Structure formats: structure tokens, C-alpha cells
């Protein structure tokens, strides 16, 4: 939220660059800005997808975190966090 509202200790130019880089989808109806991330902790792979959707009439923030054991092979793990988030946002009528 502070990123969207530009209430962090960064320059206007930095906010413009970050917001532009975060655009994952842009249509007439909405702009989806988001970032993926990955960490390993406690014997798990932890993946996340966080961001927000800007529409003319509203703003929607979201965060998804998924875990899997390190030893489990799941080649689709990386892509699933984005796919799951997208499906949820569609089902909620946001996208």
C-alpha cells in the first residue's frame, strides 16, 4: 500500500520506475502490478506473488504464499503461484 501511495523514502522517479517494472498485465479495464519471490526456510521452498490491481473504481491488494518440501520435485511450482493468483482474481471478478 505504501508503494502505491508513494509513502516510502524514495524519489518520484524511483516510484515511477518500480511501478512500471511491476506491470504484469494492462488492459482497458485494469492494471495488474505484482512481484514474485522465493526463499528457502525450515526445509521448505516458499514462493509468493504479491501486488495490486488498479481499476477505475477501486484498488485491490493481494498476496499469495505457497510452500513445498525441499525434497519434493515440482517443476510447475514457480509458475503455479502466478496462475493460482490470477484464477482467484478472475473468480472474484477483479480481472
**What overall form do the CA principal axes indicate?**
globular
Largest sheet: 4 strands, antiparallel
Low-confidence stretches: none
Query: Helix/strand-derived class?
Result: alpha+beta
**Sequence of strands across the biggest β-sheet:** 1-2-3-4
Describe what this molecule looks like in 3D.
There is one protein chain. This protein is of the alpha+beta class and 95 residues long. The chain has one domain (25-91). It is built from 2 helices and 4 strands, in the order αββββα. Strands 1-2-3-4 form a 4-stranded antiparallel beta sheet. The chain starts with 11 loop residues before the first helix and ends with a helix.
Helix and strand arrangement:
Layout: H1 12-21, E1 23-26, E2 30-41, E3 44-55, E4 59-69, H2 77-91
Antiparallel strand pairs: 1-2, 2-3, 3-4
Task: For this entry, give a set of tags.
2 helices; alpha+beta; 95 residues; 4-stranded antiparallel beta sheet; 26% helix
In short:
This protein is of the alpha+beta class. Helix content is 26%, strand content 41%. The protein has one domain.
Amino acid at each position: 500500500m505504501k508503494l502505491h501511495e508513494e509513502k516510502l523514502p524514495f524519489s518520484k522517479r524511483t516510484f515511477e520506475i518500480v511501478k512500471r517494472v511491476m506491470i504484469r498485465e494492462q488492459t482497458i479495464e485494469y492494471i495488474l502490478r505484482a512481484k514474485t519471490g522465493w526463499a528457502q526456510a525450515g526445509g521448505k521452498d516458499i514462493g509468493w506473488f504479491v501486488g495490486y490491481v488498479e481499476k477505475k473504481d477501486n484498488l485491490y491488494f493481494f498476496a499469495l504464499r505457497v510452500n513445498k518440501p525441499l525434497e519434493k520435485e515440482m517443476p510447475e511450482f514457480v509458475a503455479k503461484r502466478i496462475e493460482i493468483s490470477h484464477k482467484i482474481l478472475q473468480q472474484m471478478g477483479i480481472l
